[in-house]
Amino acid sequence: MMVINDFKGWSKSSYGLLALGIVMQLIILISSGNYSAMNLVTVLGAMLGVTCVLMISNRKASNGIFGIISAIIIIVNAMINKVYADALLQFAYIFVLDIPVLVAWTKHEDGTGNAEVSKPLQGFKQWAYAIVGMLAIWAVSYVLLKQFGDTQPVVDALGFSIGMIASILCVKRIKTQFIFWFVQGIVSMVLWIRASMLAGTGLLSPLGFMYVIYMLNDLVGWMTWSRAERKEKVMETAE
């Protein structure tokens, strides 16, 4: 079964981050003393979200399955907390990232069952397209979010715009995605910790900490994809 097999062959760092993510979510849950159905589902969504990004770092196509389930849970939570852009971002992830990755990555697997790595963004022109696209999405989403009464429109719109560009790069198997994911992780971590404080649930936020793990994973992902890129170049040279 693809999902079970995709837990095999991870880097040791990824297994460590998965364990850390699960343990910390349980600590946050127990320390909050809140065992409501909504909070339990939120913690589950955070765990699935961590699993999803670790799957991306290890180039496993089934990250899309975990991403879809996690996205649905986060959407519900975001709507309750009026963090509308993060809800929209997660909704967009399903159609722009999760489903396309399931389809595209399985068509571009190497001999080990992992997705192949494409060239990173290169030169001024490619970076300019990415940055300009991000700024354009940020401006439009900010205006829309203000109209809908988003509680943190500037930060929320910024996270949405960065996430959209990172998603496109992810589907295309471009490792530069991890730079955008890392910045987006900082923005989203601040967003959810502030949302948690505004809701009166304290500094420890399951979704806020989820993005801390995301950021650590981005560093691991960059190194893992770089090693895979070098390996593919050696194989191409040998041929």
Rg over CA atoms, rounded to whole Å, is 18 Å
End-to-end Cα distance, whole Å, is 32 Å
Number of strands: 0
> What is the global morphology?
globular
Summarize the helix and strand pattern as letters. HHHHHHHHH
Average predicted local confidence, pLDDT: 84
Helix content: over 70%
Helix vs. strand class: mainly alpha
Uncertain regions: pLDDT < 50 for 5+ in a row? none
Walkthrough of the structure:
With 239 residues, the protein is an all-alpha fold. It contains 9 helices and no strands. The longest helix is centred in the C-terminal third of the chain and has 33 residues, at 206-238. It starts with a helix and ends with a helix.
Descriptive terms for the model:
239 residues, mainly alpha, 78% helix, 0% strand, globular
Write the layout of secondary structure elements.
Elements: H1 2-5, H2 12-32, H3 37-57, H4 63-80, H5 84-107, H6 123-147, H7 153-171, H8 177-198, H9 206-238
Short description:
This protein is an all-alpha fold. It has helices at 2-5, 12-32, 37-57, 63-80, 84-107, 123-147, 153-171, 177-198, 206-238.
